[in-house]
Amino acid sequence: MEQAGNETSSGQANRIAFDDFAKVEMKIGRILSADMVEGSEKLLKLSVDFGEDSPRQVVSGIAKQFVVIGKSVQEGDEGDAEQESEIETKTISGLVGHSFVFVTNLEPRKILGLESQAMIVAGTGDAGLALMSPTIDLPPGTSLS
Amino acid sequence: MEQAGNETSSGQANRIAFDDFAKVEMKIGRILSADMVEGSEKLLKLSVDFGEDSPRQVVSGIAKQFVVIGKSVQEGDEGDAEQESEIETKTISGLVGHSFVFVTNLEPRKILGLESQAMIVAGTGDAGLALMSPTIDLPPGTSLS
Q1: Nearest beta carbon to residue B131 from set A15, A126, A135
Q2: Is-contact A40 A26, C-beta < 8 A?
């Protein structure tokens, strides 16, 4: 089937055929680890299990939503209050151990020198960025359609 | 970019370019109503809000996971036990009011004579069929990428 190229009854100009959609491989991936990318405030480096021989590396600009910045007070020797110093802590929350939707057959791309081997599917609203998670547990690598 | 057509370093033969993925329109839809389709055990007819002027009708084979079959006892007149009869009840649970991922620019298709104007994204594992829901609330019609 070809795209019509003009608007249809429901006013949509960008129609695709089912075969176009079928070319896109979407799978459930379980995040094994998540780390900040050096030199970036936005990027996280994820290790993701797709039920393959080894996990894939995924680099994604989702840090803002999942990195919690806190402060830790480091005490000086013998509890000397004047020697206390505050240290900024960054904790990644809500990712490791969770399963989300990824596109798994895009050409790998390099981001800040790191190869990203899949893309996490996300959407943004007033409340921030959301990832897509299955309503019941699905094994890593489960295909979506 | 063209598809390579042969296996790459990570052994994947079915690579697509980002432009191929970008043609697929995925959006958050909020289910306004869900009803059994007459003459089918599998199909549900959904009314789905995509933030457009009017909701779309979506026909989807997800009944098994979301229809709860129960029994209701109908009493005879004056509580006569011999007049009691069991009636099978079907309740659709877990869909109305919830938001899920849909593909919204496929050609509409007719299923049992009903036009389906989007496709709900789903995956199946041992525990059954799962739909994909955003980790935080996103407005109907939010585009995913």
Answers
A1: A135
A2: no
Judged against a pLDDT cut of 90, whether residue A79 lies above it is answered with no
pLDDT, one tens digit per residue, over A83-134 is 778 888 889 999 999 999 999 999 999 999 999 999 999 999 999 999 999 9
Q: By C-alpha distance, which of A50, A19, A18 is closest to A32?
A: A50
Do A123 and B138 meet the contact criterion of CB atoms below 8 Å apart?
Answer: yes
CB–CB contact A125 B107 (8 Å): no
* Of the partner residues B94, B105, B138, the one whose CB lies closest to the CB of residue A130: B138
Which chain B residue has its CA at the smallest distance from A61's CA?
A: B145
Identify residue B108 by its one-letter amino acid code: P
- Three-state DSSP class for residue A128: strand
Question: CB-CB: which of B94, B101, B139 is closest to A125?
Answer: B139
Q: How far apart are CA A117 and CA A108, in angstroms?
A: 5
Q: What Cα–Cα distance (Å) separates residue B15 from each residue in A15, A103, A111, A124, B133?
A: 22, 11, 19, 27, 26
In order of A128, A132, B28, B110, the CA distances from B115 in angstroms are 34, 27, 20, 4
Task: Please state the ipTM of this predicted complex.
Answer: 0.85
Q: Is the pTM of this model over 0.80?
A: yes
B22 lies within 8 A of chain A by CB: no
